[in-house]
Design goal:
- With about 325 residues, the chain is of the alpha/beta class.
- It has 2 domains: about 1-105 and about 305-325, ornithine cyclodeaminase, domain 1 (2-Layer Sandwich); about 115-300, 3-Layer(aba) Sandwich (Rossmann fold), CATH 3.40.50.
- Helix content is about 35%, strand content about 25%.
- The chain is built from 11 helices and 16 strands.
- The protein has helices at about 5-10, 15-30, 105-120, 135-150, 160-175, 190-195, 235-240, 250-255, 260-265, 280, 305-320; strands at about 1-5, 35, 40-45, 50-60, 65-70, 85-90, 95-100, 130-135, 155-160, 180-185, 200, 220-225, 245, 275, 295-300, 325.
- Strands 1, 2, 3, 4, 5, 6, 7 and 16 form an 8-stranded mixed beta sheet that branches. An 8-stranded parallel beta sheet has the order 10-9-8-11-12-15-13-14.
- The longest helix is centred in the middle third of the chain and has 19 residues, at about 105-120.
Length: about 325
């Protein structure tokens, strides 16, 4: 079995690689070549934490995998990682477990890539200003993905604590030393979204982050933070103003995200307003953005076969480059 840590994966696998692979995986999913049960969430009320289990199989790749993610918010106070994750990759021809890899970085990468694919199809080509609401671990991957598919002039960073926004700003400057755009810090989410062409929602908020009536025509929104029924990043105004509401999977979105479940429970919004899944757009079954003034909204809660897809590609690259540690159980 091959063991791959975060450093080796970072050296092997880029955001551009991941966006291509995630788009292919969505295509496989639409074509019925994947199996991915809704993830199981085990709450740990004692620590206000949870562990997620995400198994999946991709027939076209002949691999199956299970990802285990632990999310322990209190770790931040101890200087430990809030999100920790591993993937076990299995050869679906022989049943051999071929790799174990750190998946914390891969989770950030593939979650960003999912938004990157959606932005590629749904955001205006001339989008130049991106507002990032929530500057936690996932936000960097989100920005990397947007930078890979659109030419940004300005990034607005909003976070409940300004220190975390400033830290993200420093990371971005180090990551993109040749980028001449502006990084702006804003303490008001409403003011941040008013001028944005693209909005990233990446928080654990249980109440809407901004007033959807302030969205300007043509805005595209990627919402990834509300992955449980009690969490909510966007209000019903945002949903009603969106000409296209697109999801990674309808089953997952209607099972998990409070962005939809809260207004459904209140009777103020219907899931019939969902335009479709991103795979339908990728496969040409449904139109992408149709006009400049259209507001588009992409909701991602995560789907296991994306993790399997990126794990397979990382494993192949590692074998080709003779990277990683071999061990026997």
């Amino acid at each position: 079995m091959l063991l791959l840590n975060e450093q080796k994966i970072t050296e092997l696998y880029s955001m551009a690689d991941c966006i291509d692979d995630v788009e292919k995986a969505f295509r496989y999913g639409r074509e019925g070549k994947t199996i991915a049960p809704i993830r199981m969430s085990i709450p740990h009320k004692k620590m206000s934490a949870e562990t997620l289990y995400m198994p999946s199989y991709i027939e076209s790749e002949d691999y199956t995998a299970v990802k285990i993610v632990s999310i322990f918010p209190n770790n931040a106070k101890q200087g430990k990682k809030v999100l920790q994750s591993i993937i076990l990759l299995t050869d679906a021809i022989t049943g051999e477990h071929v790799a174990m890899m750190d998946a914390s970085y891969l989770t950030i990468l593939r979650t960003g890539a999912s938004s990157g694919v959606a932005t590629k199809y749904l955001a205006r080509e001339k989008s130049r200003i991106c507002a990032v609401l929530g500057c936690g671990a996932q936000s960097l991957g989100q920005i990397q993905a947007i930078m890979a598919v659109r030419n940004l002039d300005e990034i607005i960073l909003y976070n409940r604590t300004i220190e975390k926004a400033e830290q993200l700003g420093e990371k971005l400057r180090a990551l993109y030393p040749n980028w001449n755009g502006n990084i702006v810090f804003n303490s008001d989410a409403n003011k941040a979204v008013e001028k944005a062409d693209i909005i990233i929602c990446s928080t654990k908020s249980t109440t809407p982050l901004f007033n959807g009536n302030l969205l300007k025509p043509g805005t595209h929104i990627n919402a990834i933070g509300s992955y449980q029924p009690h969490m909510q990043e966007v209000d019903v105004h945002t949903l009603k103003k969106s000409g296209k509401i697109v999801v990674d999977t309808i089953e997952g979105a209607l099972h998990e995200t409070g962005d939809f479940l809260v207004p459904m429970k209140e009777g103020s919004w219907s899931p019939q307003s969902i335009y479709g899944e991103i795979g339908e757009i990728i496969c040409g079954e449904k139109e992408a953005r149709m006009y400049d003034d259209e507001i588009t909204f992409y909701k991602s809660v995560g789907i296991g076969y994306l993790d399997t897809m990126v794990a397979v590609q990382v494993f192949k690259k590692a074998i080709e480059a003779s990277v990683g540690e071999n061990f026997s159980l």
